[in-house]
Structures are given as structure tokens and as C-alpha cells.
Write a structure and sequence with these properties.
By secondary structure, the chain is an alpha/beta fold. The chain contains twelve helices and nine strands. The strands form two sheets. A seven-stranded mixed sheet has the order 5-4-1-6-7-9-8, sandwiched between helices. It has a two-stranded antiparallel sheet with strand order 2-3. The structure holds S-adenosylmethionine.
Length: 297
């Protein structure tokens, strides 16, 4: 799925491993589902080799100006599902209509709902048995979001969250070499960061700080682990990101008949690096960059 961005594949694999013990029960919500591909794969769904995460993109010429190139959809989008997941999710929620259209094409969500996660959520109190989210840290006020997620969860229900640890910004090249030092020789790292740190990772917190937010929202922690150590974050921070638009135009010019064998060769080569890195990335270490929590109400 992510052959042109292997760093994304490694991150997603480690997220799926981290949330192994979590099961969706009752009415379920994927809060910030995006194109749905992550949750679909996590649920055991599989795609044919002819499909990848890059099938529908646009504005690649503005990639370095921090545009979301995946926010694109038309009727030609066809996710080539090879096998269906072992369960469905009741509701996929996101604020980007194009991503929700991609998610709906998977036939994995019973319903997709467009809305703003920064606003009061358009759901009744006590209306979900289980919630997954890896976007709470992209939002303006995590404490308010947690209180909303707590409100819509049934008593005894479960929430699984991926949240950044305070070490995440320290591991970023952009943050440690430029944002903190203001040393102009590293200004070009803005092109690598693409707004991720300035916009999205602002909510990195220690385990204690996250627990305080959960307590205030009436939620208790039933599971906590940490994953994504420094070396994996550093590999991800660069990855194939610098060359992504150029790789996309090169792939677009390849004979479609030859593409599957080229893709297979890439994936075989990438495994030599991805397999040992993912083995390192699974270590549950207090300094790792992400927390995985399961919360109950
Ligand atoms: C890192 S992506 C994760 C998407 C998906 N869960 C996945 O793992 O692929 C973050 C998602 O959060 C969504 N998002 C960001 N801000 C939002 C907001 N204010 N309300 C709803 N969704 C939002 C984005 O549209 C995007 O799909």
C-alpha cells in the first residue's frame, strides 16, 4: 500500500501491533478515519497488488507548501479490495469530504459522517461502545476533545488512542536542529517538516499529563504502552518524503504492465530495512515517541 512511502508502512505496522489487544464492540467510531485504509488493514482487509495509497492524489506541485496531496477524489477511485475485513466499523468521522468518499468506497464503514473534531460532536451521549482515534493530537484542545469522546461513550465502553509523547519533538530533525536553535543553516528543514511539527505535533505530552486529561474527562486507563523509538522516528522523519512528487511522476510514466513487477522488487528490497526496523520499533520503552492507551468510562 505504501511502497512509495515505506516510512509510513513502518509507522502503521507498529501502530497496529501496539493496539493488538483492542477490540471494537457495540456501536463503533473511527474518529478521524481519513481514507479508512489504516483501520481497514488493521481489521484484516486486504487489497490487490494493483492498488496503493497513491492512486488518487492531486496538487503534487504544491507538496513542499504543505498541501495534503491525498485530499482528492473522483469516481475513478477504486480500492481493489481482495478480501474483506473480519469486522465493520459503524461510523467513520472526518472533516475532509474527499477522504470520506475514499473511506466509503471500502464498504467498511456502515456510515461516514463529515464534521469538525474541534466542535461539539454530532453524536448522542452514551451512544458508542468503542472508539478509535489517532488524531486527537491534531486538534486544538485535547482536553475538550477527550471530554466529548467521554460523553459519547457508553459506561463500560472503550477508547483506543495513539498520542504523542513529549519526546517526539526532540526526535525531529526540524525541531532539534532548526526550530529550537534558529540556526539559519538548517532553515531548509522546513521543506522536510512540511508543517507537521508546527501544526500537528504541538500536543506532545508525558504519560502523567495525558492521564490528568483522561481523569478530568471521567476516563480511566486500562492499558498503556509506548512504541516508535527515536531511530524509527528519525527514519520516518526523512523516509522517501523528499523525493515523493518526483517518484510519483516517474511511476506515472511506467508501462502499467511492468508496474506490478517493479513494485514487487521495491517491496522485496524495502523488507531488508523495514523488518529489522519494525523489530526495534516494537520495544515498549518509556522514551518512545508515542503512547497507545485503552481507556474505559
Ligand atoms: C494522520 S491522519 C489519520 C487518518 C486515519 N485515521 C489514518 O490512520 O490513516 C489525520 C486525520 O485527521 C483528520 N482531521 C484533522 N483535523 C480534523 C478535524 N478538526 N476534524 C475532523 N477530522 C480532522 C484529517 O482529515 C485526517 O484524515
Amino acid at each position: 500500500m505504501f511502497w512509495l512511502r515505506p516510512e509510513t508502512a513502518i509507522w502503521r505496522y507498529l501502530d497496529i501491533e501496539a493496539m493488538k489487544g483492542f477490540e471494537f464492540e457495540g456501536r463503533s467510531l473511527d474518529f478521524g478515519c481519513g481514507d479508512g485504509v489504516f483501520s481497514f488493514i488493521r481489521a484484516g482487509g486486504r487489497f490487490s497488488a494493483g492498488f496503493d495509497a497513491f492512486q488518487k492524489t492531486e496538487k503534487l506541485d504544491r507538496f513542499y507548501q504543505n498541501v495534503d496531496v491525498y485530499d482528492s477524489y473522483d469516481e475513478s477511485y477504486d480500492p481493489l479490495v481482495a478480501s474483506s475485513p473480519s469486522y465493520q466499523i459503524s461510523v467513520g468521522f472526518d472533516h475532509k469530504a474527499n477522504l470520506l468518499r475514499k473511506a466509503a468506497a471500502l464498504n467498511f464503514y456502515k456510515e461516514t459522517i463529515e464534521g469538525d473534531g474541534n466542535a461539539p460532536l454530532p453524536f448522542d451521549s452514551n451512544s458508542f461502545g468503542s472508539i478509535f482515534s489517532n488524531i486527537v493530537y491534531w486538534l486544538d484542545n485535547p482536553a475538550e476533545v477527550m471530554s466529548e469522546l467521554g460523553r459519547i461513550l457508553v459506561p463500560g465502553g472503550k477508547i483506543c488512542l495513539m498520542l504523542p509523547n513529549e519526546t517526539l519533538p526532540q526526535f525531529s530533525f526540524y525541531n532539534s536542529l532548526y526550530a529550537k536553535t534558529k540556526d539559519e543553516q538548517w532553515k531548509w528543514l522546513e521543506l522536510l517538516d512540511r508543517g507537521r511539527l508546527s501544526d500537528n505535533i504541538k500536543q506532545s505530552k508525558s504519560d502523567d499529563a495525558w492521564r490528568e486529561i483522561f481523569r478530568s474527562a471521567g476516563l480511566s486507563v486500562s492499558h498503556h504502552s509506548q512504541h516508535l523509538p527515536k531511530v524509527v522516528i528519525q527514519a520516518w522523519d526523512i523516509g522517501f518524503r523528499p523525493m515523493f512528487p518526483a517518484l510519483m511522476s516517474m511511476v506515472a510514466s511506467v508501462d502499467p504492465q511492468k508496474l506490478p513487477s517493479i513494485k514487487a522488487e521495491w517491496v522485496d528490497a524495502l523488507r531488508m530495512f523495514a523488518n529489522p526496523l519494525t523489530a526495534i520499533g516494537q520495544k515498549n520503552d518509556g522514551s518512545s515517541a508515542f503512547h497507545c492507551y485503552v481507556l474505559t468510562k
